[in-house]
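mind reviewing these tokens:
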Amino acid sequence: MIIPYFFRNIVPRKEQRTGQKPLLAVLAGLTWIQWAHFFTGWLAWTCDNIDFYSVPLSVNALQVEFNKSTTEITTTITLTLLFRAVGAVIFGILSDRFGRKWPLVINLVLLSVLQLGAGFSQTFKQFLALRALFGVLMGGIWGLASATALENLPVEVRGLASGVVQQGYAVGALLAGCINLTLVPDTKTGWRSLFWTGSGISLFAAFCRAALPESEVFLRARAAEKARGTDSAGRTRVFLKETKMMLKRHWLLCIYAVLFASGFNFMSHGTHDLYPTYLQVSKNFSTHNATVSTIIGNCGALVGGVVAGMTSQRIGRRLTIALFACIVAAFIPLWTIPMSFSALSVGAFCIQFGVQGLIGVVPVYLTEISPPGFRATFPGVTYQLGNMASSATSQIEATGGENLRTTIVKNGELTNIPDYAKVQGIVVGAAVAFVVIIIMIGPEKHALRFEKHKAAFEEGAGQEDVFDLEDNHGEKDSSSSRPVSLEGEKGKV
């Protein structure tokens, strides 16, 4: 049933692109609660990445602090990415069962505590352990943040919203870069001040989410179940049963989503995690210039996310992803070959325009192809399993650079250095090819109105399948019937 769908609908059908209101009119009609939910989802993902990029920006300082090699320091990045899948499972299940609000608040508070603790680490073992635990909490953020931001918005703005929300990734890296550029050099504590500042921003995000009500979509679903007389224990039993049914019915879709997530995460981490070190070692940049170039690249990411999100609303998610992957491939030479600050910064802008533009479509794409009742668990877990698969990217690049070396002129002398440029070009090029192939054989459910379907704790939620739908308006052919309305009305899905 799923496999035949993989080979059709490269471009959304006409009925999927019609009946939608103009974007500006929809934006003007949003309530302040919808705007606030969107903002808190974006802010949570931004904080997540301020905290994550504290390590890549501090690799050289951490080497000095703990007397470790680049490869050993990047082990902390690998551990963080490995443990993210655990957090995605834990907090995704809590969110789909108990709501979007408090699981995200708790997640952010604990994230803040661990980031604060990492800044006080006195030994490398302490730092390593805290970053591993940090990975668990970091893994819970993405699925909850995207569900919070997107599920209460009209379908007409979800493409744009997806691009902006995902660029919390770039904004987080950009803010971390700015803090590293301005605050860190002027404080006696050095790299630790970057971690402590990130901790405070995460705590602020937790307070912002706590001040807002629960997701309206989730509240309606819970009210409908109460009206049917289902108590909390009963909802939990149904949730567990429907989760098992979802996994049994959608195992092939799960595999596809993980493969896709692995590809774009290899691309993302391949262009980000070792980039400041690459500029300093392979291109002989100062720490200041390497940070500035990183910030320029993240500006390209912001532009790419917005452009790709809006483009996907018109031509579809898959075609947009493939198009932006080709943009990445085209600019790999400009990103790796030059030696000047200006040329490499232009390359960084263009590469991140493509990479983060592509990834900007991911939240809405994974949400649309997800089993509708599992919009926090399914996208979050598959995204973080992809992160787990790509967790060793920075170590692969660091090890590859140590074995594939080149020479540059440094202080008037030829110096033998790791060739991080060539290694990163190979890794990113391979990831681009993989993403293009996997996305073009994947499903498309452009502008699906997933909010019209059941929550995970409602009977039949695990059997709902977006690929059975004849259109994107929550309607199905007459051969099947399922209760659909969040208000508890009976009808054809």
Remarks:
- The first strand starts at residue 405 and ends at 410.
- Residues 32-468 form a domain with the Growth Hormone; Chain: A; fold (CATH 1.20.1250.20).
- Residues 83 and 125 are 17 Å apart (CA to CA).
- Residues 70-98 form the longest helix (29 residues).
